[in-house]
Amino acid sequence: MIDALLAGVRAISLAEAISVLLGLAYLLLAVRRSRWCWLAGGVSSAILGYLSVRARLPMQAALQIYYVAMSVYGFRHWSRTGAESERAVTTWPLSHHLAACAAVLVASVISAHWLARETQAAWPYLDSLTTWGSLFTTWLVARVKLENWAYWVVIDAVLVFLFAAQGLYFVALLNALYVLIAIAGFMSWRKSYRASRVQAAS
């Protein structure tokens, strides 16, 4: 497995390398709540969408198109909220999360059945689950919700396996780094959230 991973990294294409670097830039800038994360993420997603089509991951390809659209929305929304420090981190009640997770599961089962029956998708169930979960979680990022980072830890961990299984080893490594950055992002945003609550209570 390690030999295959190293061989895959050595054979990485220029497009995949650029997508990886811009993807890392997106997450690091998102942790800082910089609106420029959306520009880096949009270009990275456009490239990864092309790579996903070639790897026979149709749901991931469709997801990247959504990411490009969300990058436009996120950039505009974060531009209206002012400086990074003015983008208040907020949370969702548990009932909202339960309803959203149920909707993600239902949508995933429906799309996975269709993919398994009508296409040659390599991993229809995991592809669908990570796609619908990512759609929801990206919206949480744009709305500056703290819990987005917890969802990303789980989704990115699954994507490490999914992309490695399809031979996109460098993208798999990117998602492994995403897991670590998501943990750091959660801690950073939680600190900001707690500080804002203390300030509001004083």
Mean pLDDT: 86
The radius of gyration is: 17 Å
Number of strands: 0
**Number of individual domains:** 1
Strand content: under 5%
- Helical proportion, percent range: over 70%
What global shape is seen?
A: globular
The largest β sheet comes out as:
none
Task: Report the span from N to C terminus.
Answer: 55 Å
The arrangement of helices and strands along the chain is HHHHHHHH
Number of helices: 8
The helix-and-strand class reads mainly alpha
Unreliable spans: none
Descriptive keywords:
mainly alpha; 0% strand
Q: How is this structure best described in words?
A:
This protein is mainly alpha-helical and 202 residues long. It has one domain (2-82, 94-201). Helices cover 81% and strands 0% of the residues. It has helices spanning 2-10, 14-31, 37-54, 58-80, 94-118, 124-142, 148-165, 169-201. α3 (37-54) runs antiparallel to α4. It starts with a helix and ends with a helix. The mean pLDDT is 86.
Short recap of the structure:
The chain is mainly alpha-helical. It has one domain (about 1-80, about 95-200). It has helices at about 1-10, 15-30, 35-55, 60-80, 95-120, 125-140, 150-165, 170-200.
Reconstruct the topology from this structure.
Blueprint: H1 2-10, H2 14-31, H3 37-54, H4 58-80, H5 94-118, H6 124-142, H7 148-165, H8 169-201
